[in-house]
Amino acid sequence: MPAATSETTFRPLGALLGWCFPGLGHIVAGNVRRGVYAMLGILTLFLGGILVGGIDCVDRKEDSLWFVGQAGCGPIAFAASFANDALLKTGKAAPMIEMYSGAPGGASVSSFKGLAHANEFGTLFVFLAGLLNVCVLLDAAVREPRSDGVRAGRRAGEGAAP
Amino acid sequence: MTGLVAWTPFLQPAPAVHAWWWMLVLPMALGVAMAYKAIRVKDVSEWPKAVLRMSAQIVAAIVGIAVGLYLLVILLLPHLPAE
C-alpha cells in the first residue's frame, strides 16, 4: 500500500464515529462495505470474547490495564464493564461465594466469575477487538470518503502530485 | 452436557473451556483477519479471499510455533547435559 502523502486529510469525526461503534466511521463516510466488514471482524472478537469468558472478562476496575486496550471498542466495552458491575458484582445474576481474604467480614465474588482459560481467552479476545478498532478508526479518519468502488483503496492524498 | 444446558451465554464463562481452549485460535485468527483486512485490502471485493488467506497464515504460524516449542522442550532439552 502506498504511503500517505503530506496532503492526507485527517477527519476527527470519522475517528470519533469509529470509536462510538466499530465501522461507523467508514459507513458514514460512504465506504459502507468496508465499514460493515470491519464491524463484523470487531464484533466477532468482542462478542466471541464475552461468549467464552462471560461478562466478567471486561472489568475496568479489577483488570484496568487490560481495559485500556478493551476501551478501544468504544461504548460497548464500557457497557459490558457496567453490566459486570451491575449484574455480577452485586449478586443479581448469580449467588455470591464467600472468599477468605484475611480481613474481618471476608470478601465475596460471583459464582459466575471467569477463571483460567475461559477468562484469559475472553479477556484477550476483547482486548484484540479494542486494539483492532483503534486501527479501524484511524483508517476511517484518513481514508477518502466514498473511495470504495470509485478509486478502490485510495486514501486521501494518495496518488497526488509530489 | 449438564454444564452446557445450565450455561447462561454472555453472562457466565463457557463450560469446559479447559478441554478445548486450543480450538479458540480459529475464531481468534478469523476475527483478527476480518478486521485487519477490512482496512488493508485495496478492493473490498477481495476481502473474503484475503480473510481466508490471512486466517490460514495465522493458524499455520501458531501451529508452527507450537511444533517448534514441542520439539525443543520434549525432545531436545531432555538430551542436554544436566550440568
Calculate Rg of chain B over CA atoms.
Answer: 19 Å
Q: Indicate the low-confidence ranges of chain B by residue numbers.
A: none
The termini of chain A sit apart by 17 Å
The amount of beta strand of chain A, in percent, is under 5%
In terms of quaternary structure, the protein is: heterodimer
Largest sheet of chain A: 2 strands, antiparallel
Q: Largest contact between protein chains?
A: A-B, 49 and 29 residues
Whole-number total of structural domains of chain A: 1
Q: Estimate the mean pLDDT confidence of chain B.
A: 93
Q: What portion of residues of chain B is helical? A: 55-70%
Number of domains of chain B: 1
Helix tally of chain A equals 6
**Biggest sheet of chain B: strands, sense, closure?**
none
Q: How many extended strands of chain B?
A: 0
Number of E-type strands of chain A: 2
Strand residue percentage of chain B? under 5%
**Largest sheet strand order of chain A:** 1-2
What structural class do the secondary elements of chain B suggest? Answer: mainly alpha
Shape of chain B: flat
